[in-house]
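[09:14] KT: can someone run the structure on this one? pasting the chain below
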Amino acid sequence: ANTVFDLTIFDCDGVLVDSERIYNEVFREQILSLGVDVPIEYLYEHFLGKTLKVCIEQVEGLIGAPVPEDFVATLNTRTHAALLAHIEPVPGIRKALDQLDYPRCVASNGAHAAMEITLGQTELAQYFAPNIFSAEDVARGKPYPDLYLHAANTMGVEPNKCVVIEDSATGTTAAIAAGMTVIGFARLTPAQALSDAGATVTIESMANLPDTIEQLAHA
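[09:31] RB: done, structure tokens below
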């Protein structure tokens, strides 16, 4: 029996679906079209887990000008097409979800439209629907706690009874600010960065998720 958690909250991109690489490759090409060549590593470091608004502000800093009027619309169109063509579940996530029997939900800085594609194409939506929450549902996305508090509130669970699975420092910061426990998924973000942001423990494979939750629940 679970002694601590009444809810597991999953970030979406990079935790459930292997979308970060796709987002960043499309984003990089789009920035390149404005004449700025940014290494993909830079995008992982600075854009991972951030809202689109924050990413766009960073791009404007890089190019020293506002992005063109159609930048976001084009980015979304290209991203959705790339996701439809290439999205895969994160390795081991389906098996991990099959082994977890707690109530669960998704809380993502990503848009509902993108999650409909990513969770739909990978057939992971069925594990969570209708409890899929986006930064679009709250005033402020991660790193603020609003989205995680909204998810817990909607699910009727106290924040201190929630365990969050996050792959970005931004998301980890948000969950910690909400008073939750975080398991850091260190696949694209170094484990140390997730620990520094407040993750209690980090894992590098989803195969370890069920046992890690159990260990935390009985710690």
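[09:33] KT: thanks! The beta strands are 7-10, 104-108, 132-134, 162-166, 181-185, 201-203.
[09:34] RB: yep, looked fine to me
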